Amino acid sequence: IAIVDPVEPEKVLPVAERTGMELKAVLTTHHHADHAAGNNLIASTIPGIAVYGGESRIPSMTKQLKDGDEFSLGSLHIRAIQTFGHTTSSICYFVEDKHADERVAFTGDTLFVGGCGRLFEGTPQDMYTSLNEKLSKLPKDTKVYAGHEYTRANLRFALSVDSDNQALKDKAKRCGTMQCTMPSTIAEELETNPFMRVDQPALQTATGKTDPVEVLAAIRKLKDNF
Fold first, then answer.
1. Is 162 a catalytic residue?
2. pTM (global) more than 0.90
């Protein structure tokens, strides 16, 4: 099996040992410590394990990925998607099990349920490309697993800029009673996530902008101060 951003290996490793699962790979979305700090312990505990990432700041990385790289783990087909914005080297992992007709995306701090990551290194154009030209084009039934459980706060903000969105209202109500709000889907994010709706009149009105990249930049600034 592969593990994504195993920042707490002391929790992951005993489960793998107890269940007899063989850890073959670490999929790292980006270099920040709250995602990659467990890599060194994993690598030292399991000699030869493959550690994937997008650049040299990934601890213990053995396989550097570029946009569109593909590889397989058992029945799983994995494609790396470079998604700049939060950092200038973030990777999302699109994973398909074609036998089961299932697909998921591990989106790190690029795409959250109802939101997106802060622009620590990238630009609004980078994040627009990542969300609206790359991730939005994945199959609509792709399940989305983000790097943090920020959903309720994200949806509260989303309602402040897209208050007439009934799908958003419904999702906020539904998520308000859930301990874990993931997975979402690409289809749900396209309906409810303001950062993936920057071409919609409601978001343009809320920001006073019409260019989608400028709308995203304005929404991100509002979210930073929400």
1. no
2. yes
Going by C-alpha positions, the residue among 69, 50, 70 that lies closest to residue 60 is 50
Does 34 participate in catalysis according to the annotation?
Answer: yes
State the Cα–Cα distance between residues 161 and 149, nearest whole angstrom: 21
Phi and psi angles of residue 98, each rounded to the nearest 5 degrees, phi first: -70, -25
Active site residue 77: no
Block means of pLDDT (10 residues each) for the chain, length 226 residues? 94 92 96 97 96 97 98 95 97 95 97 98 98 98 97 97 97 94 98 98 97 98 96
Asked whether the beta carbons of 141 and 186 are under 8 A apart, the reply is yes
Residue of 30, 31, 126, 162 with catalytic role: 30
- Is residue 109 annotated as part of the catalytic site, yes or no? yes
Distance (Å, rounded) from C-alpha 219 to C-alpha 211? 12
Kindly report the backbone phi and psi dihedral angles of residue 116, in degrees, each rounded to the nearest multiple of 5, phi listed first: -150, 170
